Sequence to fold (291 residues):
Amino acid sequence: MLKSMTGFGRAETTKGETTVVVEVKSLNGKQFEVNLKISPLLKPYEFDIRNKLQQTLLRGTLDATVNIRQNGATRPVVINTDLAKYYHSSITSLATELNLPQEDMLNVLMKLPEVVTPATEQISEEEWLEVEKVIQLAVADLDAHRLDEGQMLAADLLLRIENIGTYCIKVRELDPQRKERVRQRLEGLLAEHVGKENVDENRLEQELIFYLEKLDISEELVRLENHCRYFKEILAEADPAKGKKLGFVLQEIGREINTTGSKANDANIQQWVVLMKDELEKAKEQVLNVL
Fold:
């Protein structure tokens, strides 16, 4: 199971004259970060809301909005007359200066920030429990989107790793030919510059073995295959939060690919190494979106 870090969740419910709307959008991020916008009535519960989001969503950059709308007059309000008078004075002066009409001033004042506020700044425990349910529904909706996208990510990542494994097999097939070419090239250089009759065959054989061992890539290919196998095992794990672990394994895969290319010193093998690097970069881009 794999989950993406990106997704969107929304939930809305109406009970009596109160409507609660929760929207949560998630993007990729190294840690858990949330930009939370809530109604003033929910300020005492801000810490609880953040905890509930993190418990399920774990990681990512979140934009979360929790709104409470009163559809009727069930909740008493307070009019801040001092603030309204200040607004009125400023608006009147501006309207006079700009020679603008001043009709319907009261309607304008009532819509300005903080002029009309709820008589109480906190909702009841029963109302909070209803808000909590809506938050859970929105988070579940987002989590479902993450899971759907995660399935597509898993399929793409598996394809990239299998391609790297296929190219690794191609390199193995070319390796014996590479070693033989190295041997022939060294023997040819010695024959050209020293003369074949002057070459100590036993010493030449020792030097060839030493040189070929320095260029040997069999260990790198074994480790590369093991890393690819481990990557696929992690993909199959039940834990949905494994993006960081997959990223670390990709780093090890990249290290073995680079070492193989540099030690091989062979144009034919280098072509397959380039293809492996291309698949690796695509996998790295996708892993950035994994939870």
